[in-house]
């Protein structure tokens, strides 16, 4: 399990260069307007969304887990505590096939998810019933 930090950045290439140096980690995936890093120390999934004019703002936070059962357990626990979730969905979003649930906090969105495979599209497609707010 690792924390996910999704940031809006003004210049993707400049940000990739900066974060590669800062975390001494190569970029894991680069697509049009999108990049991510799998940082080992500290355990972090860093996601960058190119958003000129919105650089330096938080897109969302998340928790990446290893199995869909962990997403389902987190969703049950969060829902039982009285917080509203989107339910668990299988989606294509942000160049990945994922099982995920979303929770809207007072100031930011949180995603609990497992990446099942790479995908070639950025736009959100919900493959199962429910509602996803994805990362865009």
Please tell me about this protein's structure:
By secondary structure, this protein is α+β, with helices and mostly antiparallel strands. It has two domains: 1-64, 2,3-Dihydroxybiphenyl 1,2-Dioxygenase, domain 1 (Roll); 85-136, no CATH class. The chain contains two helices and nine strands. It has a nine-stranded mixed beta sheet.
Which descriptors apply to this entry?
18% helix; 9 strands; globular; 2 domains; alpha+beta
The proportion of residues in beta strands is: 35-45%
Cα-to-Cα separation, first versus last residue: 23 Å
Structural class by helix and strand composition: alpha+beta
H/I helix tally? 2
Shape: globular
Name the helicity range.
Answer: 10-25%
